[in-house]
């Protein structure tokens, strides 16, 4: 099958998949093309940062030649048709989750945290895009944060706004006391998976750990990673993130952000 035929096949199958499944609660915009390709499709502004991040980390895994490096699906092709982007990856046959998946996940997260930063790094995915993280309402930052200082300014703006919001008034007295300023200024960045669901980690037919779903992977400061790993003590410890003093306040602020109607807090950016 040549590239033109492949694209035609992919467009037809993705279109049919969307028409038949988009109203289902568990709908995911992805399909298998036989046992050769796995395709994700969607809006280009969402998939392009995912593509750039996945390719960057895939290339590092190939070049580093480290025995503990997880397997990452190779992107073999990508294209845009009628405002929809299609991300075509190699198909990886996964085995049933092994008993040691937690230990494998820990190793994969440790490896990911040690991937060198790109020279022109920004927060979140490579090449721009909004941070995906449970701290933000609906798991997505209200706008792009170009650097840690910009994120820090936003977080400092949050607390004063909440003291006068209806969301803040719904918190218990104990929870209100936890909403204190959080600073990430000066924290180093690391690559991380912000969605720790077991479905984002697996094992292939060669017994290699597989790291998946690069829509949730990006560069974040340590406090955000510690917040992700709050219920994953061994992983947090392996990354040196145990005992972060910001976590209680992060949880209270995130709770408020989840209730406000405007997570941008009346601004388009935090410049």
Provide keyphrases for this structure:
271 residues, 4-stranded antiparallel β-sheet, Phosphorylase Kinase, domain 1, 9 helices, globular, alpha+beta
Would you give an account of this structure?
By secondary structure, this protein is α+β, with helices and mostly antiparallel strands. The protein folds into two domains: 3-92, Phosphorylase Kinase, domain 1; 102-259, no CATH class. 38% of the residues lie in helices and 15% in strands. It contains nine helices and eight strands. The protein has helices at 3-21, 44-64, 101-113, 148-162, 166-169, 173-178, 222-228, 233-238, 247-257, and strands spanning 30-33, 37-43, 75-81, 84-90, 189-193, 201-203, 209-211, 217-221. It has a four-stranded antiparallel sheet with strand order 1-2-4-3, with helices on both faces. The protein has a two-stranded antiparallel sheet with strand order 5-8. The longest helix has 21 residues, at 44-64. It is globular. Mean pLDDT is 89; it is low at 163-168.
| Alpha carbon gap, first and last residue | 49 Å
Mean pLDDT: 89
How much strand content do the residues show? 15-25%
List the total number of helices.
9
State the helical fraction. Answer: 25-40%
Tell me the number of structural domains. Answer: 2
User: Could you state the order of secondary-structure elements as H and E?
Assistant: HEEHEEHHHHEEEEHHH
SS class: alpha+beta
Largest sheet: 4 strands, antiparallel
Coarse morphology: globular
Strand order of the largest sheet: 1-2-4-3
Protein name: Aminoglycoside phosphotransferase domain-containing protein
Organism: Scleroderma citrinum Foug A
